[in-house]
Amino acid sequence: MSFLSLLHTQVDKILLSNILSLQDFGIYTIAITAAGALMIFTSPIAQAIFPRMNQLYQLNVKDDFFFLFHVGNQLILVLIGSASMVVIFFPKLFLFFWTNNMVIAENAHLILAVASLGFFLSGINTMSFSILMIYSWLQKVNIIKVISVLITI
C-alpha cells in the first residue's frame, strides 16, 4: 500500500521529467505543489477521527460510528471544497498572489485548475478509505490505488 501511494504521487514527475523541458517541468511542479496543498485539510481530520471510528467499529456501536464518519466527511468537504473552488475557478489569480510572478501564473493556471479538481475528488474520499481500512478491506484499497496510478499515467 505504501509503495502504491508513493508511486501514485511520484509517477507523473518521473514520466514528465524525461519528456518536458526543465522550464516546463518547473511550471508543472509549481502547479502540482499548489494543488497538493489542498490535501492539508484532509489528512489531519482523518487521522484525528480514525482511532475513534476504529474503536466504535470494534465495540459495534454503529450509530456513533456512522455519525462520526458523516461528521468527518462534512468537515473535509467544507474545508477542501471551499479552498478547491477558489483555486479551481481563480487559478491564475491564486498563482499570481502565491508566486508574485505573472509568467508562472499565465503558464501554470490550467494545470493548477485541473490538478486541484483531482485533489478535491481525492480528498473527499479520505474518510471512505478510512472505512476500508477499518473493515480490513486492504485489497480494495490496493485496487483503487492501482487504478489511480494507471489514471495518472
Features:
153 residues; mainly alpha; 8 helices
Could you state the order of secondary-structure elements as H and E?
Answer: HHHHHHHH
In angstroms, what separates the terminal alpha carbons? 18 Å
Cα-atom Rg, whole angstroms? 18 Å
Q: Tell me the fraction of residues in β-strands, as a range.
A: under 5%
Tell me the number of helical segments per DSSP (H or I, 4 or more residues long): 8
Briefly note the structural class of the backbone.
mainly alpha
Anisotropy-based shape: flat
- Ranges with pLDDT <50 over ≥5 residues? none
For the secondary structure, the number of strands is 0
Specify the biggest β-sheet: none
Helix percentage range: over 70%
Quaternary structure state of the chains depicted: single chain
Instruction: Summarize model confidence as the mean pLDDT.
Output: 91
